[in-house]
Amino acid sequence: MFKTKINVIESLASVQADKILLTFFAMLVIPILFHMIPSRGPYPIGAVWLPIFYAPLFSSIVYKRHVAITSCIISPWINTFFTGMPRLEIASKLSFELIVFAVFAQIIFHSKRYCRFVGFIAFVFAKVFSYLIIYFLSERFELSNMFSELTLALPGIFVLLIIGLFSKNITERLNK
């Protein structure tokens, strides 16, 4: 009996369940806080500031890949349930973008070459990649929509760039 409990605890530790829950919590709370701020235009504040991308960026830099991916799959759907944002038809596209973003962010960060620009590069890559997939699935490439989403999200891209610039220092301090 006691040995079984230890095996369960060891299994949860190897999966990093605590880090998955922490990342998931951050991906839930940060967007909710942003959506409490009144929007001053026709666009949702999440589309401008990209708060749902902050936790995956941090988790893909600090934790193992599966921690970020697990949260990226679930988070947009939970946020849709609690805040109504992202809209239901966008949640699946956002889940896909977040997964691509997290995987690519981890690849960039561990390559060491462009690790300071990890947030910026990973976001642009995830956006372009998701539009290419949409094109191959529906044979519609909405280039103007992609550019309008990128320009609308410039403040959020700037925040992702700032997080990336400090990412090297964050990991060095966590590894001490």
Question: How is this structure best described in words?
Answer:
The chain is mainly alpha-helical. It has a single domain, classed as Arp2/3 complex 21 kDa subunit ARPC3 (Orthogonal Bundle), CATH 1.10.1760.20. Helix content is 81%, strand content 0%. The protein is built from nine helices and no strands. Helix 2 runs parallel beside helix 5 and helix 4 runs antiparallel to helix 5. The longest helix is centred in the middle third of the chain and has 24 residues. The N and C termini lie far apart (37 Å). 32% of the residues are buried.
Features:
9 helices; 0% strand; mainly alpha; 81% helix; 176 residues; Arp2/3 complex 21 kDa subunit ARPC3
Quick structural overview:
By secondary structure, the protein is an all-alpha fold. Helix content is 81%, strand content 0%.
Task: Break the fold down into its secondary structure elements and pairings.
Blueprint: H1 2-15, H2 17-36, H3 45-49, H4 54-62, H5 65-83, H6 88-111, H7 118-138, H8 143-152, H9 154-174
Helix pairs in contact: 2-4, 2-5, 4-5, 4-6, 4-9, 5-6, 6-7, 7-9
SSE string, helix = H, strand = E?
HHHHHHHHH
- Indicate the structural class: mainly alpha
Radius of gyration: 17 Å
The CATH architecture classification is Orthogonal Bundle
Query: How much helicity do the residues have?
Result: over 70%
